[in-house]
Design the sequence.
């Protein structure tokens, strides 16, 4: 229990990195994600001379950031951070301070230095989209702090260069984890550095340094289904946050308005990019079925022929790796799925029963009622140039993020009596207008495949 | 009178006694002395050896809680005294009856008079209550008059009361007629069940699924109807198994139809509300079936049963609506219409995408209203419970 509580903040960060692929049913079986060995790996890995040098240089700039239950003194989550200015500015992850930012009535933030000094913290600015927060030591007056410098953007790292990630894993003690820089993560919506080293819960918000001790990134997440697959926020976002928020006043009250504003900007950008990128071609022999290109989404496919002479199904699941952490849940993603059914061995009535069952078997509850309303739906038959579709659009509103909605669009083709395609689009955290735009974009992606002119839309024949 | 005649008389007497016994006690043989008194009185009255056959002026029947006649007291002379004491003409063993509870008298003008004795509980006639020491004239134009004394229900039939016509024996002529429709219903129901398992199974598994479903259906029907028959038998002394079976089969057939027809119409005409509220029809069918089952258990009170069953259905529907509202913020059962049929059965015209998207607009105000309804004090800023499930959509 104690461990779980301690790792709460970092565990969420890990989900950020792994959730989309963990959810893939078709993924080849991997061993169960094991978190504890990663921590000991980090401790027992042979630390090179330069790692020792880097750690010794950075030791005084490194802090642990604790979220403490107000009036109770017990910590609810721990992470890491580092000084970036002589005036006492600290950079960490948003998810490390999210409880204090969103529920300030119940939580306090403190930092603890490597030599054990503890002092309160204030939140100056948040960059929710890149998972960063700018803090300031509340005891900064009259003090001068050692600060880490950022590596200049004009000197990019090359793949394979050694970098050193610092932090306080699992509240065990300050540690340095050595690894390699592997470039920018592919298919991310926001750039993240792929760090070939071991990060553990509690190291979130700590700096990743180059050999000269300059910050190249901020520890943010790791994949629990892989080994030494970890992620850093590029340092440029942190230096921009520092530059913009250095003299900002501390945030007073719950930061939901900041969260909402930034999520609004995110959904607008994501909608534009999503619509702009168009669709893949030739995704089904009979229909045009929406499958996004592999730019910032990843699609997994599978084929499930029936073993009992029944319905043959082919699936495609597309999801984004990027999710925006928003406190108790994550948001700001788009996911698509479709299933192509061939029921030529079933006969029309049996196929209809199976097709209905599949259309019915959809989940609509994502978050608890304190965060979201229940879904409200709109449905009808929609004509796509002669291809009849049954379309259901269901939406939920966020209770603490006004004017942001979750969208689900279900589509079933209705031209064949023994075959068809059912698709689903999920978009979490979008404005109503953009939800409408995405729905239209998605529905209009259905149609007849150009190559195969279909003579009779109501033909009872099996899928070609 | 010869020896043979005397023997025959004795036989008649014995037969009389038996008939009387059966009618007095119904299927329940009179358990103790109380049966013996009327038996003796009746035998004395009907015994031809007394040659002067006393006319029966009236018949007082003691009715049990299930409406069956428990004892019959012929009344040969007026006034007839009724009470617990043995010197009464009609002796009741009910402890809530006074020793001399009341007496009935019929004068030559045909006026029936009720005189109550020294009783705490009084006598009720219909809804009217007659306290101790009262004397009143009772109107008697019906076939029988019901009295209540203590916990006993009594029914008085006067000699000149009109008789209802003879009832035909159920089951001789009627039975043959009913067997064929029942058989037909049974076959249709079996076919329906088999068709449903055809729809729910893959080609390779059909025979196994159909076998299992039929077995489950048949044993379910046997248990269901058997339980009802047992209940009927306990209370009405007749099992009415055929009746219960027919009710079960008709209800099953209707429910099968209800499972298919609203879905088909909802799909064909794009009427999502039809399946959203089809549970109302299901409740109605269930309540009707329950009514007919109960009717074979408590046949004397159809109006009460109808009221009970209708109340049950209304309460059930109301609870379901309330539960739906709690669960989904909507009173309907289905979030969306998910019944898809072969394309040829679709009659509703598909919309253009633009129109469909523009029709989304009303959702916004609805969702914004619901989002503001949040019970904020508890929800805004309370520390999250440990172990909250992280975002999972699938």
Sequence:
């Amino acid at each position: 229990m104690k461990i779980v509580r301690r790792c709460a903040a970092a565990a969420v960060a890990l989900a950020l990195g792994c959730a989309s692929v963990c959810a893939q049913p078709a993924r080849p079986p991997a061993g169960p994600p094991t978190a504890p060995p990663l921590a000991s790996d980090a401790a027992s890995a042979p630390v090179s001379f330069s790692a020792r040098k880097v750690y010794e240089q950075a030791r005084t700039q490194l802090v642990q950031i604790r979220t403490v239950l107000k009036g109770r003194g017990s910590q609810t989550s721990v992470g890491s951070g580092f000084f970036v200015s002589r005036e006492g500015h600290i950079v960490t992850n948003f998810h490390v301070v999210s409880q204090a930012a969103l529920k300030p009535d119940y939580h306090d933030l403190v930092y603890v230095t490597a030599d054990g000094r503890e002092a309160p913290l204030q939140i100056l600015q948040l960059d929710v989209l890149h998972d960063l927060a700018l803090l300031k030591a509340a005891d900064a007056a009259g003090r001068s702090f050692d600060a880490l410098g950022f590596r200049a953007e004009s000197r990019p790292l090359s793949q394979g260069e050694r970098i050193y990630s610092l932090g306080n894993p699992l509240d065990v003690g300050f540690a340095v984890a050595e690894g390699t820089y592997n470039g920018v993560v592919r298919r991310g919506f926001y750039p993240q550095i792929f760090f070939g080293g071991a990060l553990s819960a509690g190291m979130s918000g700590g700096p990743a340094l180059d050999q000269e001790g300059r910050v190249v990134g901020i520890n943010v997440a790791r994949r629990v289904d892989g080994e030494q697959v970890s992620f850093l926020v590029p340092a440029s976002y942190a230096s921009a946050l520092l530059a913009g928020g250095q003299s900002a006043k501390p945030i007073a009250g719950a930061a939901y308005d900041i969260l909402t504003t930034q999520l609004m900007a995110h959904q607008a950008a994501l909608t534009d990019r999503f619509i702009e990128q168009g669709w893949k071609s030739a995704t089904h022999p009979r229909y045009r079925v929406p499958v996004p290109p592999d730019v910032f989404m990843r699609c997994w496919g599978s084929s499930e022929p029936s073993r009992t002479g029944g319905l043959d199904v082919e699936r495609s699941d597309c999801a984004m790796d990027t999710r925006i952490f928003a406190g108790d849940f994550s948001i700001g993603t788009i996911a698509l799925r479709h299933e192509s059914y061939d029921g030529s061995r079933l006969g029309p009535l049996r196929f209809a029963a199976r097709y209905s069952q599949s259309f019915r078997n959809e989940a609509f509850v994502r978050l608890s009622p304190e965060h979201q309303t229940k879904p409200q739906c709109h449905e009808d038959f929609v004509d796509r140039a002669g291809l009849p579709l049954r379309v259901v659009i269901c939406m939920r509103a966020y209770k603490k993020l006004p004017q942001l909605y979750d969208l689900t669009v279900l589509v079933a083709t209705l031209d064949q009596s023994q075959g068809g395609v059912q698709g689903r689009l999920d978009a979490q955290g979008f404005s109503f207008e953009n939800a409408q735009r995405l729905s239209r974009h998605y529905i209009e992606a259905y149609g007849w495949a150009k190559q195969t002119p279909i003579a009779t839309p109501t033909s009872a024949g099996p899928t070609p | 009178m010869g020896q043979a005649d005397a023997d025959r008389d004795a036989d008649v007497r014995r037969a009389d006694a038996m008939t009387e016994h059966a009618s007095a006690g119904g299927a329940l043989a009179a358990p103790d002395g109380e049966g013996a008194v009327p038996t003796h009185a009746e035998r004395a009255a009907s015994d031809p050896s007394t040659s002067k056959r006393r006319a029966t002026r009236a018949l007082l029947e003691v009715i049990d809680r299930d409406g069956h006649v428990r004892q019959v007291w012929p009344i040969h002379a007026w006034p007839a005294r009724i009470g617990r004491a043995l010197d009464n003409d009609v002796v009741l063993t009910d402890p809530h009856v006074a020793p001399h509870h009341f007496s009935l008298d019929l004068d030559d003008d045909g006026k029936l008079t009720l005189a109550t004795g020294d009783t705490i509980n009084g006598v009720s006639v219909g809804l009217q209550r007659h306290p101790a020491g009262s004397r009143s004239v009772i109107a008697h134009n019906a076939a029988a008059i019901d009295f209540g004394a203590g916990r006993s229900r009594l029914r008085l039939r006067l000699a000149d009361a009109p008789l209802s016509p003879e009832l035909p024996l159920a089951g001789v002529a009627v039975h043959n007629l009913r067997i064929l429709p029942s058989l037909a219903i049974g076959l249709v129901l079996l076919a329906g069940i088999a068709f449903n398992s055809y729809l729910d199974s893959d080609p390779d598994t059909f025979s196994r699924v159909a076998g299992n479903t039929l077995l489950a259906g048949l044993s379910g029907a046997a248990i269901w109807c058997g339980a009802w028959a047992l209940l009927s038998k306990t209370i009405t002394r007749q099992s009415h198994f055929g009746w219960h079976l027919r009710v079960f089969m008709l209800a099953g057939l209707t429910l099968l139809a209800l499972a298919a027809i609203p879905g088909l119409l909802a799909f064909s005409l794009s009427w999502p509300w039809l399946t959203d509220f089809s549970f109302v029809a299901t409740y109605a069918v269930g309540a009707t079936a329950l009514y007919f089952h109960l009717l074979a258990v408590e046949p004397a009170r159809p109006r009460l049963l109808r009221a009970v069953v209708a109340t049950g259905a209304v309460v059930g529907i109301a609870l379901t609506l309330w539960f739906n509202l709690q669960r989904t913020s909507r009173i309907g059962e289905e979030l969306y219409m998910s019944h898809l049929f072969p394309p040829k059965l679709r009659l509703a015209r598909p919309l253009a995408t633009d129109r469909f998207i523009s029709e989304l607009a009303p959702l916004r105000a609805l969702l914004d209203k619901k989002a503001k309804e949040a019970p904020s004090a508890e929800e805004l800023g309370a520390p999250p419970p440990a172990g909250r499930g992280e975002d999972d959509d699938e």
